[in-house]
Write a structure and sequence with these properties.
Shape: extended
Family: Belongs to the UppP family.
Main location: membrane
Protein name: Undecaprenyl-diphosphatase
GO molecular function: undecaprenyl-diphosphatase activity
Helix content: over 70%
Subcellular location: Cell membrane
Length: 171
């Protein structure tokens, strides 16, 4: 991997991580799109899916996580305090305590699935075609959710106007 490749993939990670798009998927697709020497970043490695590129992308994700922990340190301190408060008071009476437990509960299934399916998922998702298919599916899910959200907003607005018209007609 050249310095230019490292910078481009690092910038890609930084730009895409905080949006509802897959930074990992784009890290797989961009080298495939550029082709040539870049494409070998994704395809070099052994049959188990271990590649130097994968280690680099994992390091980028760890760096992103550390940056977010540093940036949101006050929020993390509040969540950790909420966790210990919930243990000592045996209550979820604070939003920070509830969030702490939701994070723990939400992390368990992901961790178990990751441990059980790590190798097949690593091999599967290192393929540009599979990454492209899943990015497309993710985009369709996000688009559908946004359209449904807008429809609900429009319907709520119409209902409010209708109720106002009825009240005005009665008055």
């Amino acid at each position: 991997m050249t310095y230019l490749q490292a910078v481009v993939i690092g910038l890609l990670q930084g730009v895409t991580e905080l949006f509802p798009i897959s930074s990992l998927g784009h890290s797989i697709l961009v080298p495939a799109w550029i082709g040539g020497e870049w494409q070998s970043l994704v395809t070099q490695g052994d049959s188990s899916g271990h590649t130097p590129f994968l280690a680099f992308v994992v390091a980028l994700h760890v760096a992103t996580a550390l940056a977010l922990i540093v940036f949101y340190w006050r929020d993390w301190v509040a969540v950790i305090r909420g966790f210990f408060w919930s243990l000592s008071h045996r209550s979820l009476g604070r939003s920070e305590a509830r969030l702490a437990w939701l994070l723990i509960i939400g992390t368990i299934p992901v961790g178990v699935i990751g441990l059980l399916l790590e190798k097949p998922l690593r091999v599967l998702f290192s393929t540009p075609l599979v990454a492209a298919v899943f990015l497309t599916l993710n985009g369709l899910v996000l688009l559908t959710a946004e359209l449904l959200r807008r429809r609900q907003t429009i319907l709520a607005g119409r209902a409010a106007r209708a109720a106002g018209s009825r009240a005005e007609a009665r008055g």
